[in-house]
Each structure stands twice: as structure tokens, then as C-alpha cells.
């Protein structure tokens, strides 16, 4: 079984999603491994999800919880969240904080009973469940679950992002699908190259949904196919986050060569969500948060932004070739980009001006 669900801003309620997640967690009979970049819930949703976790532990399910903390590198808006350590501690289950140094533990997955996987782009927060675009994948496959378990164990045993993601990338069987698994940072550069190659080989269409696009192989491949005009290319990004990236390029010296590539890419029909800029004293997190590439009939989706930093983070992506699924997800990208204005990046397109 492989099920892919797409989410639009404003179409779901947090409590509704919390109950769906609780239903998935409540099905555990032996084990639950949770790797959550951002776990920060309001009291009502925290009670629903928290109860499902504590009930599982109470009936003898082996529960482990990984979460990200303490990223100190300069990065674009938005900065990493602070997970609710008090809520996690209150669960009373074994938990481990993974220091986001040098890069983030950015996963959003659960492995249940070494058989079932919940993954995708959706963080476990009320805003992510109700105010963001996201893609969620659930799958039942021992082979697939084993890949995620291997990645989880690397993080659990070492506590180090840079020592994780060294998991086999050969395809595994998930129902009727052959699914290629990608984990980073172990295969970060390989993943970007793989996506770039799929874009370069596309003959009909490419669709992109990613908060930012900064990975050089992806930028270069997109710029090439757009310049040649032989493929239908379109997509959507997040306006403030792209502005933050351009600002960062100005700081680290990459502006002179990366901005022209981004400008060429955005000459195609790309839209940018004018989400609420991050504020230190709290703001709604309504980012365009889906992470999705469709190249002809091949789909890449997971937690991975198409970014250089994503290559170095702890991330996961599933690669699936399926004409029907690709058609549906390409249509989803078109629906999302149709809601937001076109965007032309410039040197002045910084987070502060968005």
C-alpha cells in the first residue's frame, strides 16, 4: 500500500489531523519510532496525539522519539523551531534530542511495527496541519520500513546528523510500486543529482513545489530545460523564504552565480506564496511547505527542500514512477501555484522586503 495525500492551506483543521495521526499511532502493537523536526502543539491537539503515544507505551509498545534542537548556523528565514521539550518529556517515553549542528534533523516520519511508515513534508504543529501546503505519504512495506528504521537507528545511536542517511537507495517493493528511498546527508548530493537528471531527461513536463530552490544540480537542470523551451515547466515557491535565501547569497558570496540561475528558472510560470514573514515574537506559520518534484511520470517527495542545506540535513525522499500519481501531483502543483502571484527574483528580493 502506498497512499499520497495533498493538503492545501486552510482546508484542514488541526484537531482533524491530530485524530488521523492518533489513529495511525494507535495501530501500533510492537514498536513506534518517531523522528519529528518540529513537535509543538496546542493543548487540544497535544492531548490527542500525546494520549495516543502514552497509551501505546502503556500497552507495551516500544516507543522512541527523536527531535531537533540547537541549530546555531546562520540560515535564511525561517529559523529552526524550538520543539516543545516539556511536552515530549511529559510523554514518558525514551527520547533523544539531535543537535542541529552542523545541520538539521529535518525528518517528519514515523515507523510503526517495522511495517508501516508515515512520512512527507508535514511537521507536527497546528499551523502545519491547517495553514500550509503539504504532501503526506503513508505506506505499508517491511522493506520500506526497514530503510527508515536503519536511518532512525543511525540517528538514535550516534546523535549526529552527519553520521546518518547512509541507507541503501536501491528500489524496494511497496504494493504495486517500486520505490527508491533517499536519505540525507549520506546521499544528499546524490539525491540532488538524481532530481537534476530526471528534470534534464524530461520530455513532457516538470512540476516543482519547494519553499526554495538552491541546489546547484536542480537549478542548472531547470535553467537548461527552460532555456531550451522543450518541456512544460512550472512550479511554486515560498516568497519570504526565497527572499531569505537571496539575502544569504549576498552574505556568503554566492549571489553572483546563483541569482542568474534562479532568475532564469523563475522566467517559467513560477508563483510564490506571499506567506507571513517569520517574527521572533510569534507569527502564523503559513509557508508554502510542500516538497515535490514531478518529471514526466516520476515523482520525488518527502521532507527535502531543493536546497544545498537540504543535502546536508537529515532528510528523506521517496522516488516513485507512476503515471497516474504523477498526473495527480502535477495537477496539485498547478492548483497551488494558481492561487499565488508570479515572482521575479532580484537582488532586492530579500526576506525583509517581502
Could you explain how this protein is built, in words?
It is a single chain. The chain is 37% helix and 25% strand. With 354 residues, it is an alpha/beta fold. Strand 6 and strand 7 (116-120) form a beta hairpin. Helix 8 (239-252) packs antiparallel against helix 9 (255-266). The termini are far apart. Mean pLDDT is 93; it is low at 72-77.
Strand order of the largest sheet: 10-11-17-16-15-12-13-14
Q: Classify the oligomer.
A: single chain
Describe the biggest sheet?
8 strands, mixed
Strand content: 25-35%
Shape: globular
Please mark out the parts with pLDDT under 50 across 5 or more consecutive residues, or reply none: 72-77
Task: Describe the structure using short key phrases.
single chain; 354 residues; alpha/beta; eight-stranded mixed beta sheet; 25% strand
Walk me through the topology:
Layout: E1 2-7, H1 14-26, E2 31-36, E3 39-40, H2 43-58, E4 62-69, H3 85-90, E5 95-99, E6 108-112, E7 116-120, E8 124-125, H4 126-130, E9 134-140, H5 142-158, E10 172-174, E11 177-184, H6 188-201, E12 205-209, H7 216-228, E13 232-238, H8 239-252, H9 255-266, E14 270-273, E15 292-295, E16 298-302, H10 308-312, E17 315-321, H11 323-337
Parallel strand pairs: 2-4, 3-8, 4-5, 12-13, 13-14
Antiparallel strand pairs: 1-9, 2-6, 6-7, 7-9, 10-11, 11-17, 12-15, 15-16, 16-17
Quick synopsis:
Helix content is 37%, strand content 25%.
Amino acid at each position: 500500500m502506498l497512499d499520497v495525500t495533498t493538503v492545501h492551506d486552510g482546508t484542514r483543521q488541526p484537531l482533524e489531523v491530530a485524530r488521523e495521526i492518533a489513529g495511525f499511532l494507535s495501530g501500533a502493537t510492537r514498536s513506534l519510532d518517531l523522528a519529528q523536526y518540529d513537535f509543538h502543539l496546542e493543548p487540544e491537539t497535544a492531548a490527542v496525539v500525546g494520549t495516543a503515544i502514552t497509551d501505546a507505551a502503556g500497552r507495551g509498545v516500544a516507543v522512541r522519539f527523536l527531535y531537533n534542537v540547537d541549530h546555531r548556523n546562520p540560515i535564511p528565514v525561517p529559523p529552526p523551531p524550538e520543539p516543545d521539550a516539556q511536552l515530549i518529556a511529559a510523554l514518558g517515553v525514551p527520547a533523544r534530542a539531535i543537535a542541529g549542528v552542523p545541520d538539521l534533523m529535518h525528518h517528519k516520519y514515523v515507523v510503526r511495527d517495522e511495517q508501516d511508515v508515515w512520512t512527507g513534508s508535514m511537521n507536527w504543529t497546528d499551523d502545519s496541519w491547517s495553514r500550509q501546503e503539504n504532501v503526506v505519504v503513508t505506506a505499508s512495506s517491511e522493506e520500506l520500513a526497514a530503510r527508515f528504521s536503519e536511518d532512525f537507528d543511525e540517528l538514535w545511536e550516534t546523535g549526529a546528523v552527519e553520521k546518518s542517511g547512509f541507507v541503501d537507495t536501491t528500489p524496494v517493493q511497496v504494493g504495486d510500486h517500486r520505490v527508491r528511498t533517499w536519505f540525507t546527508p549520506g546521499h544528499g548530493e546524490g539525491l540532488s543529482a538524481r532530481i537534476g537528471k530526471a528534470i534534464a531527461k524530461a520530455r513532457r513536463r516538470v512540476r516543482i513545489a519547494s519553499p526554495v530552490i538552491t541546489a546547484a544540480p536542480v537549478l542548472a537542470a531547470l535553467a537548461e530545460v527552460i532555456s531550451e523551451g522543450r518541456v512544460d515547466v512550472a512550479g511554486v515557491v515560498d516568497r519570504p523564504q526565497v527572499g531569505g535565501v537571496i539575502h544569504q547569497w549576498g552574505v556568503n558570496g554566492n549571489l553572483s552565480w546563483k541569482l542568474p540561475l534562479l532568475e532564469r528558472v523563475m522566467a517559467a510560470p513560477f508563483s510564490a506564496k506571499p506567506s507571513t514573514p517569520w517574527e521572533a515574537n510569534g507569527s502564523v506559520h503559513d509557508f508554502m511547505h510542500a516538497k515535490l518534484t514531478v518529471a514526466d511520470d516520476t515523482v520525488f517527495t518527502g521532507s527535502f527542500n531543493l536546497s544545498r542545506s537540504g543535502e546536508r540535513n537529515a532528510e528523506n525522499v521517496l522516488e516513485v514512477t507512476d503515471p497516474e500519481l504523477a498526473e495527480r501531483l502535477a495537477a496539485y502543483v498547478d492548483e497551488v501555484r494558481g492561487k499565488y502571484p508570479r515572482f521575479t527574483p532580484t537582488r532586492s528580493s530579500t526576506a525583509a522586503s517581502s
